[in-house]
Design brief:
The structure holds 3 protein chains of 3 kinds. By secondary structure, chain A is mostly helical. In chain A, about 70% of the residues lie in helices and about 0% in strands. Chain A is built from 12 helices and no strands. The termini of chain C are far apart. Chain C has a domain of about 80 residues. The chains are: A mainly alpha, B mainly alpha, C alpha/beta.
């Protein structure tokens, strides 16, 4: 695109004038100051995690505690979000379901991150056929629409919670690997990496000490945006009936089971939908905010 | 045209990789597909005969090359469940998905571009914040939520549109198209806005203003075309997520498309159909990306020559 | 006749106490701090200084091209009896391109890469005269291309910027600026991005155009060589303020400000090859933390005690020659005595 060195643009002159070269901590502080939404989002995420961990404590009813006398109740003081077709409290189900939904959002993203970092470093650092093979595999993974890929994995492994983890980890690593690889390629040629190499620092140490730290800002952003994608994939698969299986509680599964009551008891389907949306929204806001301060490519606002 | 051909050829290993990956994954299922197919109380001789007739006793590499050779001739195998050629089933289902995806794309791009441009023009003003909040909401809503909300409010409560799709009834396509396009509209709006704002920082924007152009003229005459380059690339990537989303939309609105084919194939343990639909969809996505490249180079005179 | 009117009769543009600041979260940076500057009709004026001294900001203020967080904070930009600083955007745009036009530093990025250059030049005409028939506009653009020395102007009309060399692109920019026959051309570092041979051609072209049309030119540059080549008068700018103003010969023969002398000494000259190239020590001061006294004081070899505490005003060194330096009076006296 256009040459980014716009000498006349006041922004650059200005930045050098006020000596603005912030470290990561200052950047986060700036984020906290300027982007209230990101702060609120972080708080929402923290709250959601706490509620998931302490679900047995905070939930007013048990995870699967049917009350046959109170089936399909509308929201009331006793049941804030009503009850489902078996008379289970929807709020409690959502709280318990958040454990699975959040875990499936976060853990496969961590796995994808680790796999992606390792493969990306290998591809970028060693180049040649290692690079070619890894990146073609990544191309393959990125070419298949993610939900369909996850569906194929679920078909092969069978529908279960563990397999859901595996499927979503397989989907996410390719984009991480691409980012790490391109960063590695550009850093490999820098003077300080060459200097390190010339004094005999091992490849592993160079990658760990010099290259990886430089990828971290992009990776934080990528991770924050991968989590909501994984949550959405989980809920989609569970919604289609090929993810988590009853009697487990997961948000997508709850929507799946209650969609038949949509017209008469809409809260049953909508309550878990809103839960998904709030968490995904929070992660997206946070990811956006982080990208604005951490990602050097989009730092012109 | 040369480098474009090169890109097309470069897709071949990726495509082979896709086939190989799906092939291996689907064939690593424990148990005999023929036995699964026949149910449990069949005599082993029948299972064996079926296995042989399906070529399942051949080594996997042989099966793989047989499949590739077939796929090149347009033969994707025969459905276990329906005993029909997979290609024919896909050909039957594809028009419904195509119609859905095109309508959704139309909706998403029209709404997304308009909102993105409006937000960029009013950068950091109320309208901008409103639109960007709405678009992030759009991106964050699971597609089944959008679908169910539309069904409940516009379909059930207001009764404006049919709840499920009926062949030949345009009004019945509206809700699925909006549901499917909603997320993409959000992404397109966000991308359009940020791209436009970035382009507005370019030197030639100053030149245009120095010429005496007002802000509106600068945006329409100078910024828009430049800013559309990344947006177009993203629109092509949207195709992939739209085809993913179509799986859900089709299931909710009872549309007999490719996505429905894939979901039922999973429920029926109908491996050839699943394999065929995933392969077909992936080819569509790859073709869409190539198309975006081509479009990009047509729009950008700097790389037009190289194409 | 008021003072402003009298100034307007001689000068095409006058800046009176122009202030332009960046409003950042770290504080307000006065990038242009009370600049008075006159551009007489038919003259080429140079505005010289290091990068970051506020010279580009001055030019951008005139054209209303300041970018957030930069804004005009005070002063007047008098043109044609009007104060451009007070003009609504719409009226300012009507002046820009037609009566005042601008050539930018980077011919590589200042042209829109996805539009044909002829169209981009043509647009200037059409913006200011909507009734102009396209064919006629095209003819005028091609004439202007020929005038600014673009070979095969008909063919170049349909070129994209990336198909032209840097020198040709800058000629296109000049054609764009000249096509409406402006009274004032502002050239912001017009030759900085170009080869030296091309630079000489472009400067000669600008002078020829001035001679032909009688327009005025404001050239913004860090290069005193450029000034010597074409300018009639020079303003030297430092840390947002004008520190010296004189006509070109006077300035080169009797530079009064230590900063100007430093700039002159740093021009490489043939025949002085043996001597080490002079560089002004230190860097441009941080506008957020300007010294209490003279802004140049920390880098000045001649600074005295008073320089650290008192801010100097512009004083007359000779008729038509002003300087902002406390040491100047004492020094000239000393020199005259010697």
């Amino acid at each position: 695109m256009a040459n980014k060195k716009t000498h006349a643009a006041p922004g650059e002159a200005l930045r050098s004038q006020i000596g603005e070269r912030d470290g990561a901590r200052e950047k986060l502080a700036r984020l906290a100051r300027q982007n209230k939404l990101a702060v609120v989002s972080a708080a929402v995420i923290a709250l959601a995690l706490l509620l998931a961990v302490f679900a047995p404590v905070v939930a007013p009813y048990g995870e699967a505690e049917p009350d046959v006398l109170a089936r399909l109740q509308p929201p009331s003081a006793a049941h804030w979000f009503g009850t489902d077709e078996l008379g289970r409290d929807v709020l409690s189900r959502i709280l318990y379901g958040s454990r699975l939904s959040l875990a499936i959002g976060i853990l496969p993203s961590v796995a994808a991150l680790v796999i992606g970092i390792v493969l990306g470093l290998l591809a970028g650092y060693f180049g040649g056929w290692v690079d070619y093979v890894i990146m073609r595999v990544a191309d393959v993974m990125l070419s298949i629409p993610s939900l369909l890929l996850a569906m194929v994995v679920m078909y092969t492994l069978g529908s279960s919670t563990l397999n859901l983890f595996i499927a979503l980890s397989m989907v996410g690593w390719a984009s991480v690997a691409r980012v790490v690889r391109s960063q590695t390629l550009s850093l490999k040629e820098t003077a300080y990496v060459e200097a390190a190499r010339s004094i005999g620092v091992s490849r592993f140490t160079i990658m760990r000490r010099h290259i990886l730290p430089n990828c971290i800002p992009s990776l934080i952003v990528l991770f924050t945006l991968n989590v909501p994608a994984a949550i959405l994939s989980e809920s989609s698969l569970s919604f289609l009936g090929i993810g988590a299986q009853p009697p487990a509680a997961s948000w997508g599964l709850m929507v799946n089971q209650s969609k038949q009551f949509l017209f008469n008891q809409p809260w049953l389907a909508l309550a878990p939908c809103v839960a998904i949306m709030v968490v995904v929204l929070a992660f997206n806001f946070l990811g956006d905010g982080l990208r604005d301060v951490l990602d050097p490519h989009s730092q012109n606002e | 045209m040369k480098s474009f051909l090169k890109r097309v050829l470069g897709m071949i290993p990726v495509l082979l990789g896709v086939v190989l990956l799906i092939f291996i994954m689907l064939r690593s299922i424990p148990g005999n597909a023929a036995a699964v197919l026949m149910g449990e109380h069949v005599d082993p001789a029948t299972v064996e005969r079926l296995t042989r007739s399906m070529g399942l006793d051949d080594p996997v590499p042989v099966q793989f090359f047989r499949y590739i050779a077939g796929a090149l001739r347009g033969d994707l195998g025969v459905s276990y469940r329906y005993d029909r050629p997979v290609t024919a089933m896909i050909a039957e289902a594809f028009p419904a998905t195509l119609q859905l995806a095109l309508l959704a794309a139309l909706f998403a791009w029209a709404l997304g571009l308009a909102a993105g441009i409006a937000a960029a023009i009013r950068q950091n003003k109320l309208l901008d914040r409103l639109f960007m909040g709405a678009s992030l909401l759009g991106v964050s809503m699971p597609i089944f939520m959008t679908s169910l909300l539309l069904q409940y409010f516009l379909g059930f409560r207001l009764g404006w549109f049919p709840l499920t799709q009926e062949a030949g009834n345009f009004a019945s396509m509206v809700l699925p198209a909006i549901a499917l396009g909603w997320n993409s509209a959000g992404s397109v709006a966000r991308m359009t806005r940020s791209s436009l704002i970035e382009v507005m920082q370019a030197d030639y924007i100053d030149t245009a203003r120095a010429k005496g152009l007002l802000r509106g003229g600068v945006i329409l005459g100078h910024a828009l075309k430049n800013s559309m380059l990344p947006v177009i690339t993203m629109m092509a990537l949207q195709l992939s997520s739209m085809l993913s989303g179509a799986v859900i939309t089709e299931s909710i609105f009872a549309i007999p498309g490719i996505g429905r084919l894939a979901t039922t194939a999973i429920n029926n343990r109908d491996m050839p159909v699943l394999q065929g639909t995933v392969l077909f969809t992936t080819v569509l996505v790859i073709a869409g990306n190539l198309l975006a490249d081509l479009l990009y180079s047509v729009l950008d005179p700097r790389i037009r020559k190289e194409v | 006749m008021t003072e402003n009117e009298r100034a307007g009769a001689q000068n095409v543009l006058s800046l009176r106490g122009l202030r332009a600041c960046f409003y950042t979260e770290h504080g307000v940076l006065p990038a242009v701090d009370g600049v008075d500057l006159d551009i007489p009709r038919g003259k080429i004026i140079g505005l010289v200084g290091e990068s970051g001294c506020g010279k580009s900001m001055t030019a951008r203020s005139i054209m209303g091209l300041l970018r957030e967080p930069g804004r005009i904070a005070g002063g007047q930009i008098l043109f044609d009896g009007r104060d451009l600083a007070q003009l609504p955007e719409k009226e300012l745009r009507a002046v820009c391109g037609q009566q005042i036009s601008m050539v930018f530093q980077e011919p590589m990025t200042s042209l829109n890469p996805v539009l044909r250059v002829g169209r981009q030049v043509c647009e200037t005409l059409l913006v200011h005269d909507r009734s102009l028939p396209r064919a006629q506009a095209r003819r005028r653009v091609i004439e202007m291309f020929a005038k600014v020395g673009i070979p095969e102007p008909e063919k170049r009309y349909d070129c994209y910027p990336h198909e032209l060399s840097g020198g040709l692109r800058q000629r296109v920019m000049i054609a764009m600026a000249m096509v409406c026959r402006p009274q004032l051309l502002i050239a912001d570092e017009p030759t900085t991005a170009l080869d030296v041979t091309i630079e000489a051609q472009i400067l000669r072209l600008m002078r020829a155009l001035r001679d032909e049309t009688g327009m005025s030119v404001l050239i913004i540059t860090h290069n005193l060589g450029v000034v010597a080549e074409v300018c009639d008068e020079v303003y030297v700018m430092y840390a947002g303020k004008i520190v010296e103003h004189a006509d070109t010969f006077e300035l080169f023969d009797h530079p009064a400000h230590p900063y100007t002398r430093g700039l002159l000494a740093s021009i490489p000259r043939i025949g002085q090859a043996a001597e080490r190239l002079h560089a002004i020590p230190g860097v441009v001061p941080n506008l957020l933390h300007l010294p209490a006294g003279c802004a140049f004081c920390p880098r000045c070899a001649e600074a005295g005690e008073a320089c650290r505490t008192r801010r100097p005003d512009l004083t007359e060194a000779a008729p038509g020659h002003t300087v902002r330096c406390l040491q100047y009076c004492a020094e000239t006296a000393e020199r005259r005595n010697a």
